[in-house]
TrEMBL record:
Keywords noted in UniProt: ATP-binding, Helicase, Hydrolase, Nucleotide-binding
Record's protein name: UvrD-like helicase ATP-binding domain-containing protein
Organism domain of life: Bacteria
UniProt organism field: Nocardiopsis terrae
Residue span(s) of domain UvrD-like helicase ATP-binding: 194-607
SUPFAM superfamilies: P-loop containing nucleoside triphosphate hydrolases
Keyword Hydrolase: yes
Keyword Signal on entry: no
InterPro entries named among the record's database cross-references: DNA_helicase_UvrD/REP, P-loop_NTPase, UvrD-like_ATP-bd, UvrD-like_helicase_C
Matching Pfam families: UvrD_C_2
Sites where the protein binds ATP: 215-222
PROSITE patterns: UVRD_HELICASE_ATP_BIND
């Protein structure tokens, strides 16, 4: 740790170090300024270039795109450009000082003056421990603000004489604690300067396979997962830029909370979605009741949806109550015999194609048969090869279309599910056939908004229904041919411009050609991926993953056929009815033998005195789960306050405001008391209330479920007994109690539940 000087006449070692580091840091900022100016100029030049013809325009656009991206990257690194240094011993006399920062920089001689935090050369900065110093003799954290070095914090790796406990000690403790004491702004910040060794392991884990990051509250799972996204995009840019990265979070408020982290790390090309938004065109935020959610999340629903699709493929007997198909046409009543219809129906099903694709076979075959019936009726024989023309003509007649629609309708997922939910008879029939006896409970009015739990069912349906895409496919074939030509051309552009030289910046011909195709160069991978249900992402990160139901996992897995995932969560915090309490049960079926679980064990958020209260609840909620160890021993002792009634709440909030000054307060309560508490605090924010962006509100009212993943300087938990009484209530209370970074107050009227006895003393 930093050594102090007692001789007042000489500058302290820290001051000397500051002078040395300031000189280095100033050089880096000068270089940054030069690069910014150069990039700006190149961008202007590229725009000014007068070009005509496809080739020249593509080349100009390519250059502009890369310069604009570089400009954004250089613009995002001003604060904390350099935050660390490691000294490496290459021999008794030879040490190298390596500086670590947000991006890599080289001087005009091409010498590295700053190493990107994601590069392998930066790894020892995060991973070295006294037990395994990875070749470094010293690690130094630099505190830099407004380009000025304010202080340094050294760790000398002298493994001799350290106890086992010391060896395991956290790295960069002073820098870490300084960072943890910051007031909360309502937006998560990056932790690039203080990533801890156990988190670094998660961040730099290989791309392939399913990495599960299990850890208690505040262990940095979310923040590590986001840094992992930045690391992967840096290390595997070629693959991931083309296929994109999807981050799935529990609710829109949470996605806004974490929304700044990746841009602050220079990455913007990531799609962020809740489960309710995974199907383009649907944005569900409401949840079903626990009972319905449990049913809709069950894997049996896949059978229910499959049966529901089959139920819409009908014989004339089922559709019209008649054995044969009879249609009134301009020519008279046409008839196709029932056994022939049954045969066609069976053949259409046996094609094993999506419903809407197989429909074409059924419609064309029956139209041909109707054409034949017409020719018989009119006594005008038609050659076999002309029957399709007769069929096409009949298709123009409304009764024909209606009849065939009744047998095998063209369906969207929405039409299928809406029809099913609003038809108790169909629900009972389909439920009985699929072995889902409770299906009848899913009945609801046709105009009801989609819930988050509906989205995996809609997605399941979309998969089974497919689209009638014959026109699209013809266009696709034409485009594929054009594309090959474009890729050949793009390769030429890359060779010519030399843009592939730097692997971190590198582009490949396929990506480049894709960028310039029909949608134009401005549509990023994220834009294209987010709008396409069938997009296969290069990597998917799922946060608060314990909440996903088996049906939601099916939806996520469809988007990542390579099974390259980071799954982040805590099975002790599961609140949703169909959520998981075992990672292996949830994930092994999708990636046998490819699921690897890493544990994070240190809590960076909740001070130890607060964590002790939460730990009592965890022992009840999930006795097998490990209790994370708090890094922060400090903090106000948590307190319980008895209120005569809830009207005392506003005064309590005012008291908390006085105690924390700036910073954010959350009032967290049960689902049942939410409305009452919110009414008592009219100035407080509510997620999704539309009054603005709630991360900016200094006081917010939340249910325990809504508070998941978030954190606040002060948390007031109201009516803990009601939270406990909810479904998975102990988990919910555990979540609520672990949101505070500084102060925790538990407000009750009727006495504390026994589980919180620790607060009574
Ligand atoms: N290495 C670190 N340096 C500085 N701050 C950190 C570090 N690791 C975590 N933190 C901070 O700790 C807090 C908790 O992190 P995060 O929200 O990622 O935890 P979590 O495990 O996802 O928690 P929960 O399960 O409760 O949602 C955040 O403010 C985060 O910035």
């Amino acid at each position: 740790m930093d050594s102090r000087q007692s001789d007042s006449s000489a500058p302290s070692p820290e001051k000397t170090a500051i002078v040395v580091e300031q000189a280095r840091v100033s050089v880096m900022y000068e270089r940054l300024d030069t690069l910014r100016a150069q990039t700006e100029q190149r961008l202007i030049d590229a725009h000014l270039q007068e070009r005509s013809g496809y080739a020249a325009i593509v080349e100009r656009e390519t250059r502009s795109y890369e310069h604009a991206r570089r400009r954004a990257q250089l613009g995002s690194v001003e604060e904390g450009l350099c935050f660390g240094r490691i000294d490496l011993a290459h021999g008794p006399e030879e040490t190298e000082a390596r500086y670590v920062g947000r991006i890599g920089l080289r001087d005009t001689e091409h010498e590295t003056i700053l190493v990107d935090w994601r590069a392998p050369a930066a790894r020892p900065f995060y991973a070295a421990t006294p037990g395994d110093p990875e070749g470094i003799t010293r690690r130094r954290h630099l505190r830099v603000r407004d380009r000025q070095v304010l202080g340094v914090d050294d760790e000398v790796f002298d493994t001799e004489g350290l106890s086992e406990g010391d060896r395991r000690q956290l790295v960069g403790e002073a820098a870490l604690l300084a960072s943890l004491h910051r007031g909360r702004t309502g937006r998560m910040a990056d932790i690039v300067a203080t990533i801890q060794a156990e988190q670094d392991r998660v961040i730099r884990a290989q791309l392939a396979g399913v990495l599960v990051v299990q850890g208690g509250p505040g262990t940095g799972k979310t923040v590590a997962a986001l840094h992992r996204a930045a690391y992967l995009l840096y290390t595997h840019r070629r693959v991931l830029e083309r296929r994109g990265v999807l981050v799935v979070g529990p609710n829109p408020a949470f996605l806004r909370y974490i929304g700044d982290v990746l841009p602050s790390l220079g990455e913007t090309d990531v799609v962020m979605r809740t489960v309710g938004e995974l199907l383009p065109g649907v944005a569900a935020t409401e949840h079903d009741t626990h009972r319905t959610a449990l049913l809709k999340g069950s894997p049996r629903m896949a059978d229910l949806v499959r049966t529901a699709v089959r139920d819409r493929q009908r014989s004339p007997l089922r559709a019209f109550g008649e054995d044969d198909l009879r249609v009134e046409t301009d020519a008279g009543t046409l008839l196709v015999p029932g056994d022939l219809c049954a045969h066609v129906l069976e053949n259409a099903r046996n094609l094993r194609l999506p419903h809407n694709t197989a429909r074409k076979y059924l419609v064309n075959t029956l139209l041909t048969e109707l054409g034949r019936a017409e020719s018989v009726l009119l006594g005008r024989p038609v050659a076999e090869e002309d029957l399709p023309h007769a069929g096409a003509r009949l298709w123009q007649e409304e009764p024909v279309r209606q009849a065939l629609d009744a047998l095998w309708p063209d369906l969207t997922p929405q039409r299928l599910l809406r029809g099913l939910y609003s038809d108790p008879e169909a629900l009972a029939r389909v439920g009985a056939e699929a072995g889902v006896a409770e299906a009848g409970s899913l009945v609801r009015p046709a105009g009801h908004a989609w819930t988050v739990e509906d989205v995996p069912l809609l997605d399941e349906a979309a998969e089974l229904l497919g689209r009638d895409d014959s026109v699209l496919r013809a266009r696709q074939r034409r485009m594929d041919a054009e594309r090959e030509e474009e890729v050949r051309y793009a390769q030429g552009v890359l060779d010519f411009t030399g843009l592939t030289e730097d692997p971190a910046e590198g582009l490949d011909a396929v990506t480049l050609a894709a960028r310039h195709r029909d949608s134009g160069p401005n549509l990023s991978t994220a834009d294209r991926a987010g709008a396409d249900r069938t997009w296969s992402y290069g990597h998917v990160i799922v946060d608060e993953a314990q909440e996903l139901s088996p049906m939601a996992w099916r939806t996520v897995m469809r988007r990542v056929p390579t099974r390259s995932l980071t799954v982040v969560g805590d099975v002790a915090q599961t609140g949703s009815a169909a959520g998981t309490d075992s990672w292996l049960t949830a994930l092994e079926p999708y990636a046998p033998a490819k699921v690897h679980v890493e544990h994070l064990r240190v809590n960076y958020r909740t001070p130890a005195p607060i964590m002790a209260v939460a730990a009592d609840v965890l022992r009840e909620a999930a006795p097998d789960q490990e209790i994370p160890e708090s890094v922060r021993e400090d903090g106000q002792p948590p307190r319980a306050v008895r209120l005569a009634d809830l009207r005392g709440l506003p005064a309590l909030v005012v008291e908390e405001r006085g105690a924390i000054g700036e910073g954010r307060i959350a009032v967290v309560t049960s689902d049942a008391s939410l409305a009452e508490v919110a009414a008592l605090l009219p100035g407080a924010g509510r997620p999704g209330a539309g009054s603005g962006d709630e991360p900016g509100d200094s006081v917010v009212v939340l249910t325990a479920t809504e508070s998941k993943g978030l954190e606040f300087d002060s948390v007031v938990v109201v009516r803990p007994e009601q939270i406990l009484a909810q479904y998975r209530g102990a988990n919910d209370l555990y979540v609520a109690l672990t949101r505070a970074t500084r102060r925790l107050t538990v407000a009750h009227e009727a006495g504390l539940p026994g589980i919180l006895d620790r607060l009574a003393g």
